[in-house]
Amino acid sequence: MVGLATLAALxxxxxxxxxxxxxxxxxxxxxVKAPVFSMGKLRGIDPYLGPExxxxxxxxxxxxxxxxxxxxxxxxxxxxxxxxxxxxLSLSADDVEDALPTLAALQAMDIVLMAAPESRRRLVxxxxxxxxxxxxxxxxxxxxxxxxxxYVQLVFTTxxxxxxxxxxxxxxxxxxxxxxxxxxxxxxITSIDTARALVEAIAEARSDHGVxxxxxxxxxxx
Length: 222
What we know:
This protein is an alpha/beta fold. The chain has a single domain, classed as Methylglyoxal synthase-like domain (Rossmann fold, 3-Layer(aba) Sandwich), CATH 3.40.50. It is built from nine helices and seven strands. It has helices spanning 2-9, 66-73, 75-78, 96-108, 117-125, 143-148, 171-183, 192-206, 216-221, and strands spanning 30-37, 55-63, 85-90, 111-115, 131-132, 154-157, 188-189. The strands form two sheets. A five-stranded parallel β-sheet has the order 5-4-3-6-7. Strands 1-2 form a two-stranded antiparallel sheet.
């Protein structure tokens, strides 16, 4: 598009570049864009996502197939989990059933699941092996301190901005959980769709396919 814009600015015509009317045919590449947030640099901002525009940029992955493109777009999050790790969970009761296939896939990748008491009870009842939160400093299990202590590589919470359904006692607890993840630069997933896409990206990154790399010009020719 930059080349075409330059051509037009110099008085050229699209027809000179071989373009006619109608829709451009589908190419043989796929592109996936993922938002980038700067929550860690903004003190006090809640990383819970809603209708407001909070992203400050985007990552884009381009590849001949969707799986590889998605893995590239999620590269900054996937890198934490390719070799395994621990995911801390805090799910609304309404989301447990929908999240089960994604959580089972994480567990099959040898990623340890850890949850707040209410979430853990529901997940264990559904057949998953879920660790309780770690007890730190001889005190009660505390999700925020578990994150800050470096025991967690992924936070997956579907609690809303008011903390309802989170397994925590207050909205402040729910906010502190998300904020702790951001400050530790740990991926914080707040929707099941994003978690599902992340799982698929991890699977692709762990595969033997390798990451296809090419210049933009080479991709255009595809």
